Amino acid sequence: MKKIYNVAIVGLGQIGSYLYKEISSKKKEIQKKTGKIVNIVAISAKNKNKKRIFKVNKKIFFSNPLKIINDKKIDILFECIGLSDGISKKIVEKAIKKKVHVITPNKALIAKHGEHLSDLAVKNKVNLEFEASVGGGIPILRTIKEGLATNSIHKVYGILNGTCNYILSEMENTGSSFKNALMKAQNLGYAEPGNPKLDLNGYDTLAKVKILSALAFNKKISKSKCMMEGIENIESKDFDMAEQLNLRIKLLGVTEMINNQLFERVHPCLVKKNTYIANVSGVMNAVILEGKPVGESVLQGEGAGPGPTSSALMSDFLSVLRGNIKFPFGLPNNVRKKVKIYDDKNYINSLYLRFEVKDKPGVLSQITKHLAKYKISIQRLIQIPNNANKKASIIIITHSVKENNSKKCLKSITSNKNIIKKPVLLRLF
Q: Which of 31, 134, 316, 418 could bridge 129 with an S-S bond, Cβ 3.0-4.6 Å?
């Protein structure tokens, strides 16, 4: 087995730059633990002259990352660009075809093209490693693939986006508006300064859910659309109500098998304060697995940022250096079958509904008539008047209701001229 490994890092943002420093400063430690000498022989980014946490060696810098594969003898490539398509996909494909091991934190790439890239990696007998794509520094994927390899997992859920969790924690603890909490998250570097939409609308969490599903249930990555809701419509008054109800609001990613059918979803939830997941705050992530014979397992840690992400990348790096050639998703690809998808219209759950209405006689009865029409039973009702502007908030906690019924009901209710804005729906978890 070879002793010297040549490394390329493509993408020198926060993660790529931090990784560069980690590898450069820990060469002796890496050699001690693996018996291998590592050399960074190529780096690539859009801007050579951008100020970074390390001095760029222009001799190994490539403006076009695709040229690295042709011009350099590479053993391991780190892809840290972060796009699902374009140059990210091209460089990974090209590297694998050249029998180069690939390590990436790119959940969008894996969620969309993981099956194709996995097939390529198996065919070319190289590793495709993506531990850092889910949960930052939490070793959740390796735990599923190796630590719980003989367990039958039936459910995985958790807080998978540190940006959203920070915003929700800030709104709860300080009474901040969504806008102000987002601004603070951006100032602290927890949210993208430009457009954090992919975090806020649930897409980032959904990509991670799809990866977790494939590993936990030994199935192909699902291409089906599924329930995805973000946190943009949540207001401070929802936290006030949650406090009264002894609940907290969390954005959860959930994947489970129901009657041998896959049910993936991402949405804000109301969770009981005495549960583990309710007490994961700030930028922390947590993943909870339920299976047999292990029972319930909990993993928690920082879910984002260059430090935790680099920690996961280095874990994959050392695994490759030790010669651990593995199937990317833990099993041969021909064993992993396509999964049947659970129809979320049949999902039954209790709901929190908030209506902003004109404070006038008959409005409440109009809402309750709609609920009755769609067989939605009321467990609790709270009305909060705002006498200053002749408006009111009506909060309803329902008994268990079919998802299809609730969607049809809310769609019909929004046409009522006495309802000022789109109702807020949160599911009880």
A: 316
